[in-house]
């Protein structure tokens, strides 16, 4: 480890010690063991470097240069419903858990009237009360040895959300997690954790939104662990609209039981430095997993999407559609790994990555990675990189639509293909307006206006 | 309305139009006929402002303005309409959205109020009848999954909604069966008036059975080698293009 790298691990170690003291005996049994193990793990690795194959195109140096302080508990009262208004989903049925700087904010949340069998609790509470489902699942998928960011998150594990759906409960009430970051005196780090476990023959809709004060510099490092029960359905949308100076790492872990269905959409519309990792594993036959992604980046933004789908058992299907729109000097990365284990016969895996480049200086590194050890499988992948279609642009102009508007219409259509796959209407409407706010005069603006 | 003087144009240094002269007045329908490769579509493309074509000499006046200096969208807003030979498919953009954006851009340019959704829908319903187009197609993406005939009828439908002063039909008849051809031609005839002009670019005479032209011009090797009345089209149908090609050589 270099001197600089050592400095930053030292920094996080000292932050950890302060954090541990602050817990004040509120250590939460099981979590404490995990935290200690995690900080020890992070201290040995530090942040990954470009020598690490998983991080070849995404440099963590800028992140490691900032001494982020752990976000405090005090800031939440300054945030009002008006502050987070643009991100609140306009549908009365939706229940929402709001987090300010990573801590649950009861005064902004709306969690009353949940259906029977649906448990939603701030994770800090659930940990304190040693909820048995939490104890059984926490850290089972998100292994601290696998990913330094997961280790770092686990070290600072404190709050977030715990969701549990009982067997046979098909909930139509979407749960919206809204994470809002304020601007601290010093750049702050947030490490929220999401743990969701669904029973057999159940249904859950989970929406995550990450946002913050415009132009604030902060670091969101979230880990989610979601276990989907047998014959159950999960709709999962992750909307990232962080400040353009924010660092955002999201490590999302998913396991799917027998004959379960998951549709997950990663909508990355903000942030300065962004890395999303989705890690999905089939543990029972007959599962179906759909992962869609839309990334918008301009200016100097970096958006890296890594997906891993592990076909560990037979007769499962996975479909991936990841699209990027890059302008300015933005950089995009897509890495789609698909494992088909030896036993996983009759696997059907399809992966598509499409990139629209709106400037000459924007770049994308796209890489499918198929590792297939079974012989009776269908696996396809394809990647396209291109600009707006000139014939389409001319057709619109020939009808009186000006060049900039024509570009906006076509860019919006490219993105709309993913937004249309979001099944919560109120979220689609919000995404529409967030997207339109960034499409201006034929370009992607660097910030949400 | 339109005055083309000694127009030379081409692609990548290859000259395709080698001196076209043409004058079109309001209320007139002109047919431009010619063999394959004579420059018919190039002429249509140059008039609409397609950037792949480069004008090397000559001038084009449209309503007294220098057409060649105008962007494609400006031309459209000033009332020029090109019915595409190959209408473009635009996935993800609904016909309704597209056409409303186009109409309102044109109306705004002309100092008219933009139409709201209700007013636009009323207009659309009225114009749909002209081309016998299924209203369901309007909610679909522009031309995506349309049959050849539906695409061409969609062009005429757009023309009816946008109400151009000068319409250029670029081989609108190609690939159409006789029923579709009749519907397209009827659509054109219904919008024909003393205030607008139509240029029908076609390889075959058969469209002219339904759209009766005032003038017929024969384009060969990038220039008009013969002009006449509608009887010229019949003569071409009977004798083919070889005899006019010889006129080109004689010139």
Task: Describe what you observe in this structure.
The complex is a heterodimer of chains A (449) and B (251). In chain A, strands 1, 4, 5, 7, 8, 10, 12, 14, 16, 18 and 20 form an eleven-stranded mixed beta sheet that branches. Chain A has a ten-stranded mixed beta sheet with strand order 3-2-6-9-11-13-15-17-19-21, covered by helices on one side. Helix content of chain A is 23%, strand content 37%. The model of chain A has no long low-confidence stretch (mean pLDDT 94). Chain A is globular. Chain A contains ten helices and 23 strands. In chain A, helix 1 (3-23) packs antiparallel against helix 2 (29-45), helix 2 crosses helix 7 and helix 8 crosses helix 9. Chain A has 449 residues and is α/β, with parallel strands linked by helices. Chain B has helices at residues 40-48, 72-77, 95-109, 117-131, 148-162, 178-191, 230-239, 242-250, and strands at 2-11, 14-24, 29-33, 54-62, 65-66, 80-83, 90-94, 141-142, 166-170, 197-202, 215-220, 223-228. The longest helix of chain B is centred in the middle third of the chain and has 15 residues, at 95-109. In chain B, helix 5 runs parallel beside helix 6. Chain B has 251 residues and is α/β, with parallel strands linked by helices. Helices cover 37% and strands 28% of the residues of chain B. Chain B has eight helices and twelve strands. Classes of the chains: A alpha/beta (449), B alpha/beta (251). Chain A binds chain B through residues 389-392, 394-403, 405-406, 409-410, 412-414, 416-417, and chain B through 48-51, 71-73, 75-77, 82, 84, 87-88, 90-93, 97-99, 101-103, 105-106, 109, 141-142, 158, 162.
Please give a quick description of this structure.
With 449 residues, chain A is α/β, with parallel strands linked by helices.
- Which structural class is indicated by helix and strand composition of chain A? alpha/beta
Strand fraction of chain A: 35-45%
Give the low-pLDDT segments of chain B.
Answer: none
Helix content of chain A: 10-25%
- Average the pLDDT over all residues of chain A and give the rounded result: 94
Biggest beta sheet summary of chain B: 6 strands, mixed
Uncertain spans of chain A, ≥5 residues at pLDDT below 50?
none
